[in-house]
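agent> Task received from the user: take the single chain below, predict its 3D structure, and emit structure tokens. No templates, no multimer pairing.
agent> Plan: (1) validate residues, (2) run structure prediction, (3) serialize to tokens, (4) report one or two observations.
agent> Step 1 OK, no nonstandard residues flagged.
tool_call: predict_structure(input=
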Amino acid sequence: MTGHETPVVTPRLKSMVVGTAGHIDHGKTALIRALTGVDTDRLPEEKRRGITIDLGFASLEDKASDGTPLRISFVDVPGHANFIRNMLAGTGGIDAVMLVIAADEGIKPQTKEHLAICGLLGVRRGITVISKTDAVNPTRLDQVVGEVQAFLDGTFLEVGESKILPVSAKNGDGLVELRCELRGLAQNLDEAGRPDHLPRLPIDRAFVMKGFGTVVTGTLLSGSICSGDSIALEPGGRSARVRGIQTHGHSEERVSAGSRVALNIAGVEVSEINRGQTIVQPETLIATSTIDAEVKLLPGVAAMKHRARIHFHAYTSDTLASVSIYGSNSAEAATKRLMRLRLHRPILLLPGDRFVLRQLSPATTIGGGRVLDAQPIARLKTSKCIAWLESIRNASVEEQLRLRVDRCGIHGLSVGELIRETGLNQEAIIRSLNVLVNCGKLVRFSDNLFLTRNAVEDATQAILLRLEMKSNQEGVGLAELRSRTDVRGEVIEPLVERLAVEQRLRRRGEMVYPARTGPEVSAEDEHLHSKIEAVYKSAGLASPSTNEVARTLGIKDEELRRSMTTLLRDKLIVRMGTDPVYIHRHAVEELRQRIRDLRGQTIDVARFKQITGLSRKYAIPLLEYFDRERVTRKEGDRRLVL
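)
tool_result: status=success, residues=642
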């Protein structure tokens, strides 16, 4: 390419997923076949019975008025009441709905239920199609159109918000207008917010393809997935790897939210995968069995009782659930209430996710709602829980993060925990947390741990109160503060350092004393202690003898013994066994973590020497120390790492 040539920029593909809705035999599948040329009835039983039983998929390639390529994916759902579970599995991730009503039959029971379900799931865009116009005369068609207009009044598909299009899949009448309307929906689709969330792909199909292996399909709700990515299946956390990606037969290296996706995955057998599992990034999101939610009951349904059992449907998952109604023993029809739902099996859910509730018998849709909290805190007082849910239900993203940190008090929350609670990616979390820190609403402890200012003061009081319970000379070790207060361990040391600078307490090594108390140490002794500590710190695990330290520093044995007593008291150095073997606390803690990484394994002296690089003289006292500290347990000639 010469310097005068302008590079060609290919417009980014825009994707939209459209779900069908409507009564059985109202022509949904025929309509998709007329639009795309694909027969979505793929199962032999569907061919034999002439009805849709499970989900079907097809796509339409088009271009927006500005040349942007469009891909409209269709999810064809069954219309029979017996297959409503499959219908719900297909509507969870759609961007718009195509409600199909046959001209020769008009509005039927599943027309009403499907539209109610779409409203409960938060679908706000769509088209109403009067199908089979070839089967009726103009008078009947006008009558049905009038009935449909009245039926849709007050819904998201009402005239003015959406269009009603008479169409015949048989002779092609109205198909051009329908394609044009679908094109307009796709090019105006609002994709804002999707880039801030981690990838989630609820699985609706899993099968084996000859020559490829395990394949799963679904609608990518958020984020992006690339070929070669490591993934995990929730619930269960089973790890796998993406070998290849397709969208409606097109091979892709990367797919973004809003796409119908087929993933060829390695590392897991198809027998280990079920509809309802969700593909996520490893070690990010986890399934939950308890959620707090805002639930809306449909008009005309029976009142829901406290502790009722219902069917719960979200995306491609479904399970039984038990209901706890906050602040009441029942919820009436057409009301909106806060509830806790205890799921009988775990599902991956996040705040903002929509769901549908159906009663057990007769099996009808009674309501639905949205998740407010997928990681509720156990044993939180009901009054506090209700107040917190009321605060968070309409809060901004930044305020939601602040409320989540505030709820955890002196325990605080880390970036990873906030990711797990919200589904936001790390960049979005940190961006919002920085704003909250800069305006003084949160305090940062290390790069990834945050508390509110009130919680910092509460943690301070907890530490100072613990100090008051000790004598002036005795002090409190940092380990005791971690175990005997509710303050999060990672907060203890930086907070103690801050309080020491403010002269609200005194710290010597691992020991903490009330301000202006504790053992008095002269400046000369303090200087000597620091020199001896530095020798042991630089030596690591290769502990020098006390004679070597005395010769190196040119000090008398009596001075060394006095300083060693102080350093041991302040837990800056640790004595191993009965022999005078001393090691700096930092080296001991680093080794402790290395050994804990072997939890469940057994080690002998030879392997321990290999891990540490130490001779038997030092290895044996260290192992005996870890036995006493319950890091290891001696079993004959070997030790089990606990």
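agent> Step 4: summary for the user.
The domain at 395-402+420-520 is CATH 1.10.10.10 (Arc Repressor Mutant, subunit A).
agent> Done.
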